[in-house]
Amino acid sequence: DRIDAHKLANWLRLGELKTVYQGDRNNRKLRDLAHGYLATVSDSIRIMNRIKALYRSWSIRCAGRDVYYKRNRDQWLSKFPINESRMRAALYYAQLDLLKEQRKEIKKIFLKEARRYPIQKILRGIPGFGPIRSAFAIAIIGTPHRFRTQRQLWSYSGLSVVIQSSSDYQVVASGIIRKQQKHNTRGLTRNYNRILKFVFKGAAKEAIRKDPVKTLYRSKIEKGMRPELALLSIARRLATITLILWKRGEPFNTAKMILHN
């Protein structure tokens, strides 16, 4: 309306409007498939939690994944003392079976679409990356050139530390000088892309199981770094490698990673 148009024109005049990356239409298919696959996984987990919650409401032990399998489903349903709970559980099981089939189908289409991008072969060579994580990275990032430096990718992925400071300067006889004090950290940034953080943190957890990342992770802990901070450092390293290799079009080289440690 007129008020919004006036505000936008005023912000444009003051130079306060910032550009926002909208993505590429060619990448829209993969992005939609990525969100669809995540939604199907989330719905599956929700139904699985409801099934266990129903058993636990009757004090029926249901640890592990055996309660979800079809082979022992009749045996599990017979543990309910009333038919109403048994009917409710059967409804949940029917929903779970349908979501499992949909999950397999959309995963197949999602990975097939991701194979159209040549960069996937390079990303799959990075430690901790597989077909799923590389497909998510391509879908969400779109193009690496939207990030000028690695720190911008860290911030977008929720891997950067928020630093706050106040009273940074003081007045002395010679003039105004900056105080020699450390900045206060406030944890990781809260405004980030959840999927990318899931990709890089998951890749870091997978990569620390094998060398050369395993050795790098242990060396950080031996130097006194807390395990969660060491894992964050590994996730940052993988994000940096992803950005560099994607821009250069080079395959992952283990020797270079060891050389820069």
Largest sheet: 2 strands, antiparallel
Number of helices: 11
Order of helices and strands: HHHHHHHEEEEHHHH
Shape: extended
What's the mean pLDDT score? 90
Largest beta sheet: strand ordering: 1-4
Helix/strand-derived category reads mainly alpha
Name the poorly predicted regions: none
Separation, N- and C-terminal Cα atoms: 56 Å
Portion of residues in helices?
55-70%
- CA-atom Rg in angstroms: 25 Å
Number of E-state strands: 4
Classify the beta-strand content into a percent band.
Answer: 5-15%
Overview of this protein structure:
There is one protein chain. The chain has helices at residues 2-14, 28-57, 73-77, 83-114, 119-123, 131-141, 150-156, 194-207, 213-222, 227-248, 254-259; strands spanning 161-164, 169-172, 175-178, 184-188. It has 261 residues and is mainly alpha-helical. Strand 2 and strand 3 (175-178) form a beta hairpin. The longest helix is centred in the middle third of the chain and has 32 residues, at 83-114. The chain is extended.
